[in-house]
Amino acid sequence: MNIIDTLWQYIYKYYINGIVNDTSYNPVDTVTYAILLGISLFGVYKLLVKLKIEIDTSFIIAVTPYILAGSSLRVLEDSGAFSPPIKYLFITPVIYFVIFAVTVSILSLAIALERNRIIKDYHIFFCAGGIAWTLVNIASLIVLGEVQHLEYAAAILVLGLVSTGVVYLVSSKLNFTLLTNKLNISILFTHLLDASSTYVGMDWLGYYEKHVVPTFFIDIAGKFTDHPALVMYPLKLLVFIPVFYMLDSQFDDKDKKFIPLMKLVIIVLGLSPAVRNTLRILMGV
Questions:
Q1: What pLDDT is stored for residue 24 in this prediction?
Q2: Is 249 within 8 Å of 224 (Cβ atoms)?
Q3: Model confidence over 94-125: pLDDT tens digits?
């Protein structure tokens, strides 16, 4: 066996196999994708600077439908709507590149239309494109399948809202402004919604966790409780309280320009799996 064959087997085992067979992540591809995400942040930042885009509340609202579009498109793949090799485009991590390409294309079009005075505000056109895409995906899911677990999907939303509300109220009582900040608590909500979808999916319906780190902690919790996925709630807090602290107070002024982009990425990493999991459960996929 030559070095090329050995390298190919390594690549297939740790990267391609997970995409082709849509299996759980492994430590190798998890670390690789994390590094790629970090590198990509700089490229995305330079692109936004070139397009003269400010990541403010209006932009975050406008880009949110594209997160929903990506998640619903992923569920379409889960439901068997696509066949190989097309289906591989809609499996993580490849789907992130697909969604990014489409999002940037529509964003560039919206900005061009604004600068040519065809439209007044690119945010509205951009947001509308994402909403339309999401609605098409949802309609396709309903046509191809049927709503089976509305009660469980509702439970996920309620658990996400209640857990976020509890954190906000406790933080208010303790004057812990880090988690009463509107953007921070909104970001935390997306991740507590993700935690809720994991809890309901695993402990109520028998789904399994694909990601390496959550699986590690859930397996440990399983030695002490019949509801191990509940560990996702404190795990999210243990991760994001230090993250918010560093983003909000530990960056120099020259580095603070990256903070809005980093927070947007954190929103994507929470909302995307939360919506995908909830839609899968809703449709019984």
A1: 67
A2: no
A3: 898 999 999 999 999 999 999 999 999 999 99
The amino acid at 132: A
Over residues 169-195, mean pLDDT = 96
**On the CB side of 241, how many CA atoms lie within 13 Å of its CA?**
11
Instruction: Look up residue 25 and give its DSSP letter.
Output: -
Contact in structure between 68 and 276 (CB atoms under 8 Å):
no
Please state, in angstroms and rounded to a whole number, the distance separating the CA atoms of residues 188 and 266. Answer: 9
pLDDT in tens, 9-59: 888 888 888 888 777 688 888 888 888 888 888 888 888 888 889 888 899
The residues, any chain, with a CB within 8 Å of residue 18's CB and separated by 6 or more, are 24, 25, 26, 29
| Per-domain boundaries in the chain | 1-50, 53-145, 150-285
Q: Name the phi and psi angles at 128, rounded to 5.
A: -60, -40
Is the Cβ–Cβ distance between 200 and 232 less than 8 Å? no
Would you state the pLDDT for residue 213? 86
Distances (CA, A) of 177 to 168, 237, 239: 9, 15, 17
Pick the closest to residue 283 from 100, 72, 105 (CA basis): 72
Buried b (16+ CB within 10 A) or exposed e, 173-185: eeeeebbbeeebb
Q: How many CB atoms lie within 10 A of CB 5?
A: 9
